[in-house]
Amino acid sequence: MSEDGLSKVIELNEDLIENNENLAARNKEIFKKHNIKSFDIVGAIGAGKTALLESISKNISRNKRVLVINGDVATRIDADRIEKHGVKTVQINTGRECALNSYHISQVIKNYDLNNFDVVFIENVGNLICPSDFILGTNKRIVVVSITEGPWVIRKHPILFKFSDIAVINKIDLLDVIEVNLEEMIRDAIEINPNIKVITTSAITEENIPELVKELFSN
Ligand SMILES: Nc1nc2c(ncn2[C@@H]2O[C@H](COP(=O)(O)OP(=O)(O)O)[C@@H](O)[C@H]2O)c(=O)[nH]1
Ligand SMILES: [Mg+2]
């Protein structure tokens, strides 16, 4: 490809990201107007994003009206799992796209009465790379990794940690059988982003889920 051709491709990508940021700012404004606390959850396939949302939903659905937006390439398996815990869900199937973007969220906002909700969670498509380029307009971004992804998973994916507010290291119930140094993983996250809050959890035993919930609603 010629140099000119290449620069055109880059310009298009920059446009896409800029449009996404404008739309994200609008989503944020609308959430704020409706007094909604919003979170987006990113992480690899199988890290436990949905399982954590199930535990969080169980914990808060008696006191808060929750909407969960699930992004997946196909199926509404995750939305069905979460809906069992007394929260409303919307499944977005992205087809060939490897991350949700602000347009997806704006469409949900357009079609749902936000007066009916206090909290919105967005589970992104399972991927540790693509979501870096697309903010969605939420108050906080949560990045989830699990100890089964290996001890270097945080170091290998610095960008998501740099731009997240909370890092969850999940599946700590498996510490006896998986060889990782949890303290080192925590240190890796803080080294990349000194402002990130790190919480270690098990979505299955629910260890530290109350601490995670407390952190979500801390300010
Ligand atoms: N042992 C254990 N398994 C977990 C935990 N969290 C999730 N899982 C399991 O990991 C698999 C993937 O979880 P899921 O929530 O679908 O991950 P997602 O792709 O990030 O949404 C499922 O079989 C879950 O039951 C955990 O904390 N401990
Ligand atoms: Mg999931």
Low-confidence stretches: 1-8
Number of domains: 1
- The CATH homologous superfamily is termed P-loop containing nucleotide triphosphate hydrolases
| Portion in beta strands | 15-25%
Give the bound compounds. guanosine-5'-diphosphate, magnesium ion
Spatial extent as radius of gyration: 17 Å
Question: What would your notes on this structure say?
Answer:
- The chain is α/β, with parallel strands linked by helices.
- It has a single domain, classed as P-loop containing nucleotide triphosphate hydrolases (Rossmann fold).
- Helix content is 40%, strand content 19%.
- It is built from eight helices and seven strands, in the order αβαβαβαββααβαβα.
- It has a seven-stranded parallel β-sheet with strand order 3-2-4-1-5-6-7, sandwiched between helices.
- Helix 3 links the parallel strand 2 and strand 3.
- Helix 2 runs parallel beside helix 3 and helix 2 crosses helix 8.
- Magnesium ion (MG) binds next to helix 2.
Task: Report a brief summary of the structure.
With 219 residues, the protein is α/β, with parallel strands linked by helices.
